[in-house]
Design a protein that fits this description.
By secondary structure, the protein is mainly α. It has one domain: MFS general substrate transporter like domains (Growth Hormone, Chain: A, Up-down Bundle), CATH 1.20.1250.20. 74% of the residues lie in helices and 2% in strands. The protein contains 23 helices and 2 strands. It has helices at 21-31, 33-47, 51-57, 59-66, 68-71, 81-108, 110-130, 134-162, 168-193, 200-206, 209-221, 226-231, 235-246, 252-266, 271-274, 281-295, 299-312, 317-345, 347-373, 383-402, 404-414, 421-450, 453-472; strands at 4-8, 14-18. The longest helix has 30 residues, at 421-450. The radius of gyration is 23 Å and the shape is globular. 59% of the residues are buried. It is a multi-pass membrane protein. InterPro entries: MFS_dom, MFS_STP/MST-like_plant, MFS_sugar_transport-like, MFS_trans_sf, STP/PLT_plant, Sugar/inositol_transpt, Sugar_transporter_CS. Keywords: Membrane, Sugar transport, Symport, Transmembrane, Transmembrane helix, Transport.
Length: 506
């Protein structure tokens, strides 16, 4: 046991309890759902840079890359809509699946959604590894997307509900930590399989089955959250589970607040209609704008297409894949910073410091690429300048990994009251997946058309979203999840949407 805590509850008393080994292990198992998301993000960029894969499924891109005189500039050599569809189709499927996951999560519990997500992802991984044509390849990607939609909808909510208030940030960030580990593992796998003479891409794709098995098996043994058990009428079981995860029998205040929140949620006939009411305007705004801005940081330019991007910058095949591994390592270690600081310093400071560094790095990378390639895209990087560019990109990845990466999932998952939580998380996931799909589908075209200006484009959005955090996001550190709604009542802007008789649960 790591220690005890006592925080003010909505029922007027204190929540007592300890940070138990049981709840930490439970949350760590649940967070492995992030491995699915991370592995796929990392694997697709490496696979699409492999010659054997391109020659089999995208021969036009292969020949364009091998003969720049025919294919045009460095900026455009990977520009192909079907190649982008291979990456982006998954996220379109995840968007649609997140709405089905919302219904499943509310009706049957969070763990059932994780189990469904893991099984469907497993089928998709097998299809991808065995694909003999582009149709089967895309079908496999769509099934992976359904799995990710279920996992991303249920896991952050599960973590927020199981974690004690003082550790909710750190345990929820474990989901993002698993995402970064998945990306790193995928980059290492790609680096290894790229040396295989045949079928290296198949090995890379089919190994996505490993995190799917981990999540599926883990979900079988996970307990359901007290919030979900109460919501489904299992109050005695919920109280027993709350006592177990808090390490004390004295959970009456917290249990009472959960009952109140659940009773109020049952009075809501339509969560989807209710979430549009003015009183939920702050939460809805956060659930839409934070995932929107997260994708407009430009991070997926690095994570989806890192090897492709580095090859565009003039690196060889092996060097491009190894550079992707380096950025993956930076991503993992910087996420650890978030885990150890998010509940000490709060969400806002990490957002603001990370955003400022990201702005500087985007401007620096855009300026360097402009000086080397210019508008015609016919220049080449020197080894020294290439290494400097990689170093700046690593700083950018680190800044994202302790701020917009984990907090983009944490904050939306903890601001919704129970009566609209599943609907709110579905909106969060669907907005995230939609703009992930858009960026994945058009990035290579944008790079071809906007050239070095693309980095300034993303940098401009980082300025806007950092200002949004500064002025419109209140701090949620250490506040019980069923009491978070009170933060809007004292906010200079959002308080006007709060009814005069608003209680702590809304």
């Amino acid at each position: 046991m790591a220690g005890g805590f006592a925080v003010s509850g909505g029922g007027g008393g204190d929540y007592e309890g300890k940070v138990t080994a049981f709840v930490i292990m439970t949350c760590l198992v649940a967070a492995t759902g992030g491995l699915l998301f991370g592995y796929d993000i990392g694997i697709s960029g490496g696979v699409t840079s492999m010659d054997e894969f391109l020659l089999k499924f995208f021969p036009n891109v292969y020949h364009k890359e091998k003969n720049l005189k025919e294919g045009g500039t460095q900026y455009c050599k990977f520009n192909d809509h079907m190649l982008q569809l291979f990456t982006s189709s998954l996220y379109l499927a995840a968007l649609v699946a997140s709405f089905a996951a919302s219904i499943t999560t509310k009706a049957f519990g969070r763990k059932i959604s994780m189990l469904i997500g893991g099984l469907i992802f497993l089928i998709g991984a097998v299809l991808n590894g065995a694909a003999m044509n582009l149709g089967v390849l895309i079908l496999g990607r769509l099934l992976l997307g359904v799995g990710i939609g279920y996992a991303n909808q249920s896991v952050p909510v599960y973590l927020s509900e199981m974690a004690p208030p003082k550790l909710r940030g750190a345990l929820n960030v474990c989901f993002q930590m698993a995402v970064t580990l998945g990306i790193l593992i995928a980059n290492l796998v790609n680096y290894g399989t790229s040396t295989m003479k045949k079928n290296g891409w198949r090995v890379s794709l089919v190994l996505a089955a490993v995190p799917a098995v981990i999540m599926t098996v883990g979900a079988v043994f996970l307990p359901d959250t007290p919030n979900s058990l109460i919501d489904r009428g299992q109050k005695e079981k919920a109280k027993t589970m709350l006592q177990k995860i808090r390490g004390t029998s004295n959970v009456d205040n917290e249990f009472e607040d959960l009952i109140i929140a659940s009773d109020m949620s049952k009075q809501v006939e339509s969560p989807w209609g209710n979430i549009m009411k003015p009183r939920y305007r702050p939460q809805l705004t956060v659930a839409v704008l934070i995932p929107f801005f997260q994708q407009l940081t430009g991070i997926n330019v690095i994570m989806f297409y890192a090897p492709v991007l580095f090859k565009t910058l003039g690196f060889g095949d092996g060097a491009a894949l190894m550079t992707a591994v380096i950025t993956g390592l930076v991503n993992v270690f910087a996420t650890l910073i978030s885990i150890f600081t998010v509940d000490r310093f709060g969400r806002r400071p990490l957002f603001l410091v990370g955003g400022t560094l990201m702005i500087i790095c985007q401007i620096a990378v855009g300026s360097i690429i402009a000086s080397v390639f210019g508008v015609d895209g016919l220049g080449t990087f020197s080894k020294g300048l290439g290494n400097i560019t990689v170093a700046i990109i690593c700083v950018y990845v680190a800044a994202f990994a302790w701020s917009w990466g984990p907090l983009g999932w944490l904050v939306p998952s903890e601001v919704f009251p129970m009566e609209i939580r599943s609907a709110g998380q579905s909106i969060n996931v669907s907005v995230n997946m939609f703009f992930t799909f858009i960026i994945g589908q058009i990035f290579l075209t944008m790079l071809c058309e906007m050239k070095f200006g693309l980095f300034f484009f993303f940098g401009g959005f980082v300025v806007i979203m950092t200002l949004f955090i500064l002025f419109f996001l209140p701090e949620t550190k250490g506040i019980p999840i069923e009491d978070v709604s009170r933060i809007w009542k004292s906010h200079w802007f959002w308080k006007k949407y709060m009814p005069a008789d608003e209680n702590t649960h809304v």
